[in-house]
Request: fold
Amino acid sequence: MYKTPLNGDPRPGPCQWQWFVNVKLSRIVLMVLGILILTPLISHFYLSNVERNTNLMTHSAHSHVDLPDDLDVREIDLRVGVEELVRIRGSVLSELRSIEKKRQQFKQELQTYSKNIEDLKLELAHQQTNLNRLKISVEQAQVAMHEALQQNTPDLALPQRLLPNALPPNMPAILRNRSSHCRMFSCFDHSRCSLTSGFPVYLYDPDHHPVMNDGWDVDGFLKTTLKQVLGYNPHLTQNPMEACVYVVLVGEALKDTDDISENVGNHLNLPPVDSEALKRLPFWGGDGRNHILLNLARRDLSASSGDIFSDIDTGRAILVQSTFYHENFRPNFDLIVPPVLGPPGGDVWQECGYMLPSRRKYLLSFQGEMKVNKSIPLKSRMSTHDVDLETKNSELNVFIVQHLKELANTHTSDKFLFEFECNPASDDSMNTGPQDWALCGTDSSRRAVLRESTFALVFAPNLVDFVSTTLLQARIYEALRSGAVPVILGGDQVILAYDEVLQWKRVVIFLPKARVTELHFLLRTIPDEDILYFRRQGRLMWERYLASVQSTLDTIVAVLRNRLNIPPLPADTVAAISVFNETFQPLLVPPSGDVEQEESLGPLEPPYSSPAFRRNFSLGLTQSYEIWNDWGDPFRLYPALPLDPLLPSDAKFVGSERGFRPVGNGAGGSGKEFSEALGGNSPREQFTIVMLTYEREQVLLDSIARLRGLPYLHSVVVIWNSPRLPSPELRWPDIGSPVHIIKAARNSLNNRFLPLDNLETEAVLSVDDDAHLRHDEILFGFRVWREHRDRIVGFPGRFHAWDLNTKNSWLYNSNYSCELSMVLTGAAFLHRHYLHLYWKWLPQAIRDKVDEYMNCEDIAMNFLVSHITQKPPVKVTSRWTFRCPGCPQSLSEDDTHFQERHKCINFFTQVFGYTPLLNTQYRADSILFKTRIPHDKQKCFKFI
Reply:
C-alpha cells in the first residue's frame, strides 16, 4: 500500500515511485520470457501430434492395402517421413522450374533492354549528327550572307518571263537607201525580245506563205528539212504574238520545171523574190523589222544567183545568205552563212578524213577554172576607180597563176597539185558566177584530192565588189570536211561565215594576193603540231556549224540570240523517275558496323546545290566571244584551249578562260590541310555519287552502307538498270544523305552517264556498285578533282598501246605500267557537263557500239574528255584494281571483254579521226596522305 505523505498529498513520493517501477519491470520481463519460451514448445509438441495422427488417418483411409495389426509404430513413422520428403522434393523441383522460367524471362528482357539501349545510342548519335549539320548549315548561311554583303552580289533569281502579247504594229515603210544603213539598234525591235523571253522564233510555212514570182518555187528538200530541223529547236513557237523573230525561207529558188539544169542561172535577169509578196506577209508590219530572210544555197553555187536581194526592197529585215556585195552587206546586221551541202542532220563523222598523218601527199592543191560570165554588165555598176582596181586585180591574178605553175615545176621536194582547167569542162551556169573560179569534177573526186592534201588553196572572188560568194564558202566547206587546211589568197578582202563570233584565224590561213611569193615559205615553216591544231579546229568547226542543215539553222538562231545577249535555255536533262511509286516509303535502317572515321576528314553537311547565277551574263563579255547552241551547250574557241568549245550552259556553271572554274581562289586552297578546309578550292561544294547496278541487291546495299558519314556527300543516285524492280521488302541503309533509286528506260551501260535532272552538283563520282573505296581516298580524289575540274580524276588506270605485231591497230592494256592514258569511270570524278556532252554531242555511233558490246562506255568517256581538253586524265592514290570477294560474276570477267575493248578503241579512233588519248606518268598523292603524325607534332605541319 502506498502511504499518504505528511503534507496530505495522496500521490506517492519519489522513492516509492522508483521502487514501483523496478518491481513492475522485473515482473514484466519474467512474464514475457516465459511466454516466449514455453509457448513455442507447447505449440510445436501439440501440432506435431495432431499432424502425425492426421496423416496416419488419411493414409489409412486412402490406402488400398490394410496395414497389418502388428505393424510397428516406428516403421509407420519412417514411412510417413519418407513420403513427406518426397512431397517436399516435388515441391522444391516445381519451385526450381518456376524460378528457372522466370530467370529465362528476365534474361530475354535484359537482352531486349540492351538492344534498345544500343538502338537509342545509335539514334542519339544520328540525331547528334543532324544537330551538328543544322548548326553547320546555320553557320554557312551566316557566312554566305556576310560574303554577299561584302561583295554586294547576293543570289538572284531570274526575272519573270516576259513575252509580247500582240502582233507587230504596222509601220510605214522606210526608204531603201536608209534600209541599206540598218543596224541592230536602228532596225530591230528589241521590245519583243526580253532577257527572259527564251528567244521565241516563228517560222512562216513556205507552203502557205510563198514569196516567189510566178513559176518559181523553193527547193523541196530545203522546205521539208527546214520545217523538220526547226521543229527540233526548242526556240520554235507556234504563236506569232509572242515571237521575237520571224523566219522566212526564200531560197534556194528553182524554176518549176522537170529539168533543173534548164532553169539554174535564169534568175540572173529575173530575181525570184517578189517584193510585194514580202509586204503581204501577215506579220511583216510594213517594214519587215525582226524578220529573217533565209537564202540558203544548195544546188546552185553560182555567185550571182546567191545575191538575189540586190535589187529587192527588203526593208528592215535581216538577210542571211552566202553571197554579198560590199555595198549591200550590213555588218553585224546581215549574216553570212555557208551553203547547206550536207545531210539534214545526224552523225557526220563518216564524211571526214583522218587527221593523221599531219603531212599528206600534196603540200598544196587547187582545182578550178576561171569562168567569165558576160550575162551581167558589171562595169556599168562601177566607177572609174573601181574599173582600174579590177584591171589591176585581173593582172595580179594572171601573175598568181603563173607563179603557182612555176612553183609546181621547180620544187621537187614538195608535191603540188594545181589544175587551172577542168577536164572535162565544167558547166558555166552550174559552177560559177561572174569572173570566179568554177569547181572542177564531182564532189567525190574533189574529196579524194583534198584528203591527200595538207593545205587547200582558195581564191578570193576575182571581183573586189564581193565580200563573200557561195563558191568561196563551198570550197572552205569541202576543205574542212576532208581535213585540208584552207589557205585563202586575198583573205583581207572576204568575210567568212559567222565571222562575228568565230575565230577563223585558228582554222584558216589568210594571205594577201600580193604576198603570193611567200606562200611556199610560209607553208613549209608550219610545224606538224600546228598543222594538227588547224585540222582539229577545222573539223570541230565543220561538225558544229557547217556539216548539216540542222547545224546551220541552229547556229543561225544561236548567233542572232547572242547578238541580243539573251541567255540560252537550260541544258536538256533526263527526268529521274524513281523505281518506287509516290506513295511507297522504302524501309530505312541504320547500317551495321562502325562508321569510317579514322581522322577528321571534314564536316558532315546538309545537301546543297552548286553555286548558281554567278557570272552567266557577264561571261561572254569578259572571256571573249561565245555561242550557245540551242541544245543548251555553249561552244567557244579559246586562245588558250583550242579544243574546248563545249561548256555547260546551265546557270550553275562558273567559267574561266579555259571554260572551267579557276583554281586557288583563296577559299580553302592548297595552303591548308584538307581535313580543315570547307570545300577545297570552291567554298561550300559537294559531290554526287552515281552508281549503276543490275540485280546485285545485297552488293549494292553493302556499298551504300559504307558511305555513311562520308563528308561533302550531297546525295547518292542509283541507276537501276534491270527491268526487274527491287523488292519492296529491301531494307535500305540510312546513310544520312538522300539516296535516289532511278529506273532506267532500258538496260544499257550508257545509262551510267545519264544527265539526270536531280544531279545538283558539278562534281559527279561515277562508281561501280561493287567498288570499295575508303572515305579518305574518296575525299582526296574530290580534292584533286577541284584542282583539275576539266579532267577525269579517278583511281583505276589503264593505257592503250600500238599493236607491234599487226602494226595497224590499237590495243587496250590493263597491265601494271608506269604510264596511263585512261581512268576508268568505275571509280572516277568528272564534271556534270560531260554527261550532257556524252548524250548531246558524242556521235550516236559510239553509243550504239557500247550497246552492241555491252562494254566500253568508260573508254568512250575518256575519248570525249581527252578530245575536248587535249589533256590526259589524273590518277590518284596507288590503287590499281577493284575486287569484290564473293560478288557475282561481272561483265569484265568475261573472256571476250578485252577483245571487245580492243575493237572499241579502234572504232572510236575512226569516229574521231584520230586517237585523242594522251599518255601520262603523273599520279596525284597528297602530302602526308595516310601518314600518322603525333599529336604534339601536328602544329609543325599546319601550313604544309
User: Anything to note?
Assistant: Residues 362 and 698 are 62 Å apart (CA to CA). The radius of gyration is 46 Å. The longest strand covers residues 713-720.
